[in-house]
Structure formats: structure tokens, C-alpha cells
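User: Once you have settled down, look closely at the record that follows, taking as long as you need, and be ready to discuss the fold:
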Amino acid sequence: MTGVYVRATELTGKRLELLREIVPHVRRVLTFYNPRNPSAIVSAKEGREAAQRLGLEFIERHVASVEELQKAMQAFKTDEADAYIAVSDAMIDSQMQSIIDVARVKRLATMVYEPGAVVKGALVTYSADFNEVGRLSAKHVSQVLAGSSPADVPVEGVDKLLLVINLKTANQIGLAVPESILIRADKVIE
């Protein structure tokens, strides 16, 4: 067995720290996740602990289906939170465009863990470089197709992390991103 390892759950705390730098007035951060998803549970726990360290309120909304998520998004009131953070949950990710759209209307900053979501309108991500994930995965496939046993191909982790910011979204929600963040960004979408 072989593969490529990507950090997702372990970065939730760092994402909250960055969110606080980008949105200094943030006090309450909302997340949706399925409470039966082991990865989401770990990610939410890390978010909860980081929020406590940072003096933030971490608002967790449990949803077990797309229908429950849609109802929770409709029921969410603008003054309930200042920002949204995605935790590691594939079901929620499948609905990310809807979350981004609702967040934009309600003027919430959005921190996600997939760079493609920032291109689609989320505010910011701090995540693995998925181009690097693809490159490493292709290398593994190539080695196996060339005759290597998967057991002989070491598992590799993607250590390169990207900070991507969407300034267009920042403008739409009335947020001025600090220059100190823009300087550190790997990519700024204007």
C-alpha cells in the first residue's frame, strides 16, 4: 500500500489564527459538519480548542445530510456569527458553493481548506498545494505501473501549504485585508 498524505484536520487551529488576523473583529465563528464523520469530529475538536485559546466562540452546527445543511443555512441569522470556517467533511464540501453564496449575502468571511473554493468566492484558504498532491500521486502511479510494488513506494506527505486570498470577495463583504496578510499570501485573486 502507498499513497499521498494531505494535512486537512491538523490545520484547523492555524486557519482560525489566520482568520483572526484577516478579520480582527471576528468573535464568533460558525462551522457545519456531520457529527458521524470521524475526520470532521477531529477537525472540529481542533477548532474548538483553538477558538478557546484565541478567545473566540466556536459555533458548531451538526448536519447529517445535504437537506439538513440547506435548512441550517436558511435558518442561520446574520448576527449569529462573524465568519465561517470549513472543517474536514466531504458532504459539506460538496455543498461549498451554496455555503459561499449564503456567506457572501450575509457578509461573512469564509475560511476553507480547498484552494478551488477561494477561486469560486470563498475569502481565504490555508491548505495543501493540490497541484503538488496531483504531481506526487502521478509519480506513485507511474512507479507502480512501471513494476514497483506499492509496498516499496513510500507514503509521502505534501508539506507545501498555500495561503490564497480572494480580494474580490473581501470587497463584497466590506473587509479590508491587512497588508501583512497580503504580503504573506501565495496567491491573491483580484
User: Anything to note?
Assistant: The beta strands are 4-5, 28-33, 57-62, 83-85, 109-112, 124-128, 156-157, 161-166, 187-189.
